Amino acid sequence: MINTVAITNSKLNQYRLRVRYRKDGRLAHLGHLEVINTINRSVRRSQLPFAVGNGFARRMRLQFSQALPVGAASLGEYFDLFLTEEMDPKAALERLAASSPTLLAPMAAGYVPYGLPALEAWLTRSTWSVNVIDETSVEALSQGIDAVRARGSLTYLRGEKEKHVDLGRTLVSCEVRPSGNGFLLDCRSTEEGSLRPAILIGAAAREEGLAMPALSVCRVAQWHEDEDGSLVEPM
Amino acid sequence: MRLAREDLFRLIEPLLPLVEKPSRYLDHEWGAVEEQPGPFHACLVYPDAYEVGQPNLGISILYDALNGADGISCERCYLPWHDMADLMRERHVPLLALESAAPLASFDLVGFTLAHELVATNIVETLDLAGIPVRAADRAEDDAIVIAGGPSVWNAEPLAPMFDAILLGDGEDAIVEIAACVRDARAAGASRENILLALSRIQGVYVPSLYDVVVDSTSTRWGYAVPRPGTSAPEVVLKRCVADFASTPACAEHIVPYMGIVQDRLAIEVLRGCARGCRFCQAGMTYRPVRERPMDQVVEASERGLAETGYDELSLTSLSTTDHSQCAPMLNELDERLSGRGIRVSIPSQRLDSFGVDMANAASGSKRGGLTFAPEAGTQRLRDVINKNVTEEDLERAARNAFEHGWRRVKLYFMMGLPTETDDDIMAIPAATHRVLEIGREVVGRGKKSKVQVSASVAVFVPKAYTPFQWAGQLEVGEVERRARLLLGANTDRDVKISYHDPRTSLVEGALSKMGRAGFDLVLAAWRRGCRFDAWTSEFNYDAWEAAAEELGYDLPSIASEGFLLDARLPWDHTSPGVSKGFLQREWRRAAQGVTTPDCTRDSCVGCGVCPALGVDNVVWGERA
User: Are A135 and A226 members of one domain?
Assistant: First the structure.
């Protein structure tokens, strides 16, 4: 549900505009910092009345959802832009779309309450589509995933650092896609960390003695998980 | 062999997950010209990684000029990093241009930027990856015409065998003439030989294959170039120069990269040329005359460029921005118009006096990073030799002004190995650095919390073509290291940091700056031994360069340290930026006597010869401070 009426923070007189955008095609290979810089510049080009922070560096007030891995596409990424004037979100969306690269196009915009927690911490659930694009057997990988899940946790190297992921908490469900060519993962991010789909598939492949398959990864949607476990739409 | 023009991104895409920084290869940046209808296709190549090449203003200017011309399309290409290059070779993927993802070897015209001497092996690597014959002489009739231009063309001889033509000087008009000449000649069915002859008739275009190298008693061991009989190629190719700089587009940068690049900001070129006359400075001699862009044009272009690109930083670039006669009102006007938008204005280097600090202050707003000055030499005697017209008092006043305005970190640039340099000159570098630190402590206080820090970066002087020091030899590596030990040993304060450049990198740069056309064999041999990305400290491999030299019977130290006789014919005498040899010889003699020469934008004409040779004048819009 898109909000069309802004709720301002009366002290700062600022309005929090939430924007859903996609990250697609070859731009899936952008890193998180590159996406942040690009959207920052898109906002400047759009000439929207963005707010500037009061810190030393005087940066635009802009918040992002959790980083996507390099190479992963998304149909549901979000940023919150703080505006100094209330303007029609449709008009804001049009201006943003006209100033953004097509493969990072904003798709929806609406106001959210000013005082919501930061996006990165608030969006805790995500659905991922993982397609295997080489000859690796999805069935074998599925067996590998079951074996990895049965152990309850996963340890892997990120750079030179050893990382641990609690699969019981971070992997809510994993199903083979109806087409049979990959998986649908439902993941939860916790304070300790979150699960990257490619890490899970890599571990499953090792479990089965297979090479890391070529994957096409896409974050399909994100939600906020309430205390009672219900999912809240970001917009 | 000319390859077919087709989109081959599908061959690169599977490699992207396997390489670092895949955004180097993506294209589709904001502002890139994606429609490339041609029918004449040109590609501009910066032979280094994307993040180094993309901010190059010269490429932006030429990209705009070519894409704005009827029937001509222009794309970009950068050298893939090792990981991507290895994968491309393994899978037989040729080098592609960014916009169309068509093979570089399918283009009609391929133009390289020569930014400095150490890109030499990268050019070989680019051509080899593209499948274009490295030597111009080996290219087939239908192969792309490969040209070059840029700040480092003034001794192009060691690279000349790779190029069909080399453009000297300003490119914005000439590049379109070159493209049109190739297009029309191709359309008329002209042979490659005749296309090159036609190119040699365009002012500023040097066609190396039309010149023979002669070594005799009047020359250095590298010889000199003379036109081949019957070619009508000019004896001396004079550079191109845009007389009316204000008539060129002020905002040339439209492409906004995704990845962080080395100068990630909007650059507006506020003036071209510098007449201060520093005797070591190649750009100062070869970009003359001075041509300022009027203030109103700079301000309007800055606002428009920032709105179009979305950058939050603006750099007012030139060889010496604070010399612009309207610098102060220009910065004030920009400050007024850009305030409240979180936009930072920067100027690339500070003039070494109080005015320079005032301008840095006006540009930076409340932000106080480090401030950089370039005294270049430690003693007044040596500063007079190099014609760096600043005094000890200038340095002290500038430093005091900087600390009083809130700066806490000051960086000083010096050189070592300058002609006539003695140990006293070397020891004066740490002395000057400590003096600046003391001034900082006087102004700010001595406690740890004052955070006053001064650093000195000392480069090795490399004699360059078309400077008054072109006849000098370079200091040998052993002596550089001895003087460096003197420098480092004289540092007695933890708040002073002194560093010096790797003398071996400078040695290769020095050798390539001195060699003639025979130097290309060295470049090729070094590339065969794996040398590329030589300007990257992490990639430079001196041992490979030394082995390549040995294989050819060369000794790099003796090449670089060789001085030339004042009346010798030099390897670059047939290409000219307009500055006369007589002027350079006179400046060399004045240097030896420690006599300075004034700046002709503030004083009378010094007789460098550029204005009469090119039919141009200095263009200065106000009184220079």
Answer: yes
Q: Closest partner residue to B258 among A30, A71, A99, by Cβ?
A: A30
> Domain check: are A128 and A169 in the same one?
yes
Residue of B nearest to A217 (CA): B17
Q: Does B143 touch chain A (CB under 8 A)?
A: no
The amino acid present at B64, given as its one-letter code, is D
Q: What is the pLDDT of residues B303-361, one digit of tens each?
A: 999 999 999 999 999 999 999 999 999 999 999 998 877 788 988 877 787 778 888 87
Residues of chain A found within 8 Å of residue B310, distances taken between Cβ atoms = 40-45, 99
Report the residue of A58, A102, A134 to disrupt the B interface, i.e. the one with the largest count of B CBs within 10 Å. Answer: A58
Shortest Cα distance, chain B CAs vs residue A228, angstroms: 39
Domain ranges of chain B: 9-238
Tell whether B140 lies on the interface with A, counting CB pairs under 8 A: no
Does residue A155 sit in the same domain as residue A110?
Answer: no
CB–CB contacts below 8 A, A to B? 72
A69 and A131 in a common domain: no
Q: Residue A3 falls within a domain, yes or no?
A: no
Please tell me whether residues A177 and A101 are part of one structural domain. Answer: no
pLDDT tens for each residue of B60-113:
999 999 999 999 999 999 999 999 999 999 999 999 999 999 999 999 999 999
Nearest to B256 among A29, A41, A59 (CB): A41
Q: Looking at the 3D structure of chain A, how many domains does it have?
A: 2
CATH number for position A70: 3.30.70.580
- The ipTM estimated for the assembled molecules is 0.90
Enclosing domain of residue A96: 8-120
In the CATH hierarchy, which top-level class contains the domain B9-238? Answer: alpha beta
Contact B9 A30 (CB under 8 A): no
Give the one of B9, B28, B342 whose C-beta lies nearest to A27's C-beta: B28
